[in-house]
Amino acid sequence: MKRVVITGMGAVTPLGNSVPAYWDRLLAGRSGAGPITRFDASRFKTRFAAEVKDFDPAPLFEKGELRKYDRFTQFAVAAADEALRQSGLDAGSIDRTRAGVILGAGDGGLATFEEQFAAYVTGDGTPRFNPFFIPKRIVNIASGVLSIRYGFQGPSFTTASACAAGNTAIIEAFNQVRWGKADVMLAGGAEASVTPSSIGGFNASKALSTANEDPAAASRPFDRQRDGFVLGEGAGILVLESLEHATARGARILGEVVGGGLASDAYHLTGTHPEGAGAALGMRLALEEGGIAPGEVDYINAHATSTPQGDRSELSAILSVFGATPAVAISATKSMTGHLLGAAGAIEAIACVEALRTGWVPPTINTNEIEEGFAGLNIVTGAAVQKEMRYALSNTFGFGGHIACVLFRKYA
């Protein structure tokens, strides 16, 4: 098995449209939530979200090309361009048959679908659909667009495991490199689901917070008063390479992927197992693959969406794997970014790598009173803290019981 390192990262998030902007605002405890601007949300129970701000895709594309791509694909391209720039990879100088793209997404071109169907329902005569309607909306198109953009002819596909999709993609790309099937992989996720049907659907399932009076304080992971998650959007991309490929070209190495745990709750359509059975299994599998004991993990970036059942389930799983120890710092960055669904794991992977690289644990904001029964856990609230760290674990869980946990190591 080959060692797999990270040489580049790119991000488009509700906190900023680059990794430095995103990371600085995470450490500062800034919230990206606010009133929805992309459509009139006045009739909905939830009227706020964590939207991407000041995003201009025009410089990324040739004239006329932009109309081919839904917003989620635009996010993916922006994040991938940043990641490749940081990596120093020249797409034309590597073996492109051994370079690929695996991304995660849950909804794909949902906004495109809604816009086109609205035009169909209100139109007269022969239905007129955009000729790019199908490629704009299908969930796999962002990975295809990146493969075409950079000429990467290796493995290219999209993982669709709901909110676990970003981590699932990272694990699959990690496997391609460590098994020797690829030298370079782009991995991560993209999502642009701040749309009427998404807000309406999550409202109907009672998953979203309805704290419209103060959106910035609405996402309250682990807090006894939490009432649901805040919908977010954006993309995160990591460049994964074999260690030998990266060192041969003199690349700067940001971190290392050492394990992945894929599992299932096998319990409920949308709810998590009360005792976190699947989550505990996923974490144990990631640690086992990384060859470390629970006591060696220094930081957990929790899935922690701020739903009543989900947060309690995850804390139960963490307690069962790690015990009530202050040695493991836990934080929930969704308190600031909102929940990016299929892209959540991607931007949270970036947070893990930056935490290991800089020695700073980002905080959980808005959490004032920890869920009863879990006071012994070291949940970082209020402000970022400094900590010596070698291993970080990222948890993601999706509707249908999907579990994907990724273990990162500080590169030294």
CATH top level of the largest domain? Alpha Beta
Oligomer: single chain
Mean model confidence by pLDDT: 96
Q: Which geometry do the CA atoms define? A: globular
Number of separate helices: 12
**Major sheet: arrangement of strands:** 5-4-6-7-1-8-15-14-9-10-12
What name does CATH use for the topology of the largest domain? Peroxisomal Thiolase, Chain A, domain 1
Query: How many E strands?
Result: 15
Element-level helix/strand string: EHEEHEHHHEHEHEHEHEHEHHEEEEE
- Structural domains: how many: 2
* Contiguous uncertain segments of 5+ residues: none
Helical fraction: 25-40%
Q: What is the C-alpha radius of gyration, as a whole number of Å?
A: 20 Å
Class by SSE composition: alpha/beta
Q: Judging by the overall fold, what is the CATH architecture of the largest domain?
A: 3-Layer(aba) Sandwich
| Annotated CATH homologous superfamily of the largest domain | Thiolase/Chalcone synthase
Strand content: 15-25%
Q: Termini, distance in Å?
A: 19 Å
Largest sheet: 11 strands, mixed
